[in-house]
Specification:
Blueprint lengths: L1 H16 L4 H8 L3 H10 L4 H10 L4 H10 L9 H8 L2 H11 L4 H7 L4 H13 L3 E3 L5 E3 L12 H12 L22 H25 L38
Antiparallel strand pairs: 1-2
Helix pairs in contact: 1-5, 2-3, 7-9
Length: about 250
C-alpha cells in the first residue's frame, strides 16, 4: 500500500510540475472533474489511466517511477572532489561501477583479482561517500537514486570518454547482441528538442531494465554499454570542400 501511496503522490507532483489541473486531466480522460479527484483520493487507477496521465505530463511510467523514488532523498550525484577520489583510483572506480550495476561482494571477488580485505576497504570508502551501505556479512545496499549519474564533463565522465574514444568504437558491432546506428540529418530547433527528450526517455528505460534485471542471477546478466548522443557535427574529411558560407567549424 505504501508504494501505491508514493506512486499517486508522484503523479500529483508530476501534474503540478506540468501545471496541469484536475479539470484538464478530466477533459483529456473524458471524465468529470469530481471523478478524477475521487480517483486521486481513493488511489484507484488502472495502469492505462496512469500511463495516460503520464503522457499529459510529458513523461512515461519509467520516468514516473524514477521521480517517485527520487523523493526519498537518495544520492543523485557526487561532488567533483568525490568523483576525483574515485577517478584517481582505477580499482575503486571499477568497484563503484560494479556496485552501481548491483554486483554482490562474492560476484566481485569471483570476477576480479582483489583479496577480500582489499575489497572490504574499497567498499568502506564507497560507504563513506554514501554510494552504498556496507552491511553485515559484506552485503551491499545501494543508496543512490534511480537517476544517479556522474557529473557532466566531470572527472569520471572524462575517464570514460577517453575509453570510449580509444576503445569502444574500435569494435565492429557485428555480433547479434550488438548494434550501431549512425544518423545524419538537418533538424529544426523544435525537432532537436523533441529528439533529445526521447533520448532521455530511452536512457531512463535502459536504467529501469538494468534495475529490474539486478534481481536476476548474476550468470544470466552481461555488461553492456549504450552511448546516446546528439550534436552538430561535420566530418573533418569534408573540411576542404566547405565554402566560407558554411559557418560551423564542426567541433
Amino acid at each position: 500500500m505504501a508504494q501505491v501511496v508514493a506512486l499517486v503522490e508522484a503523479l500529483k507532483a508530476a501534474l503540478k510540475s506540468s501545471r496541469m489541473t484536475y479539470a484538464e486531466v478530466a477533459r483529456c480522460m473524458d471524465l468529470s472533474e469530481s471523478s478524477v479527484k475521487r480517483k486521486f483520493s481513493r488511489r484507484e487507477f488502472t495502469l492505462a489511466e496512469v500511463d495516460r496521465i503520464c503522457s499529459l505530463c510529458d513523461t512515461d511510467l519509467s520516468g514516473l517511477l524514477q521521480f517517485m523514488e527520487n523523493r526519498d532523498g537518495r544520492l543523485q550525484a557526487l561532488s567533483a572532489a568525490q568523483e576525483r577520489e574515485i577517478a584517481g583510483d582505477l580499482a575503486l572506480l571499477l568497484v563503484a561501477v560494479c556496485v552501481l550495476n548491483r554486483w554482490s561482494f562474492d560476484n566481485i571477488l569471483e570476477f576480479y583479482v582483489f583479496e577480500e580485505h582489499q575489497l572490504v576497504r574499497m567498499l568502506a570508502r564507497l560507504d563513506r561517500l554514501k554510494l552504498i551501505e556496507l552491511q553485515a556479512n559484506n552485503r551491499i545496499k545501494l543508496l543512490v537514486a534511480p537517476n544517479f549519474g556522474w557529473l557532466p564533463n566531470g572527472p569520471i565522465e572524462q575517464v570514460f570518454l577517453k575509453t570510449i574514444q580509444q576503445d569502444f568504437f574500435a569494435a565492429r558491432f557485428s555480433r547479434e547482441d550488438h548494434d550501431l546506428i549512425v544518423l545524419n540529418g538537418m533538424l529544426s530547433a523544435a525537432s532537436n528538442a523533441e529528439f533529445r527528450r526521447k533520448m532521455e526517455r530511452l536512457a531512463r528505460e535502459f536504467d529501469l531494465l538494468n534495475r529490474e534485471d539486478g534481481g536476476k542471477p548474476f550468470e544470466q546478466r552481461k555488461g553492456y554499454t549504450a552511448v546516446i548522443a546528439l550534436r552538430d557535427w561535420h566530418y573533418s574529411g569534408f573540411a576542404n570542400l566547405r565554402s566560407d558560407r558554411s559557418g560551423s567549424d564542426g567541433r
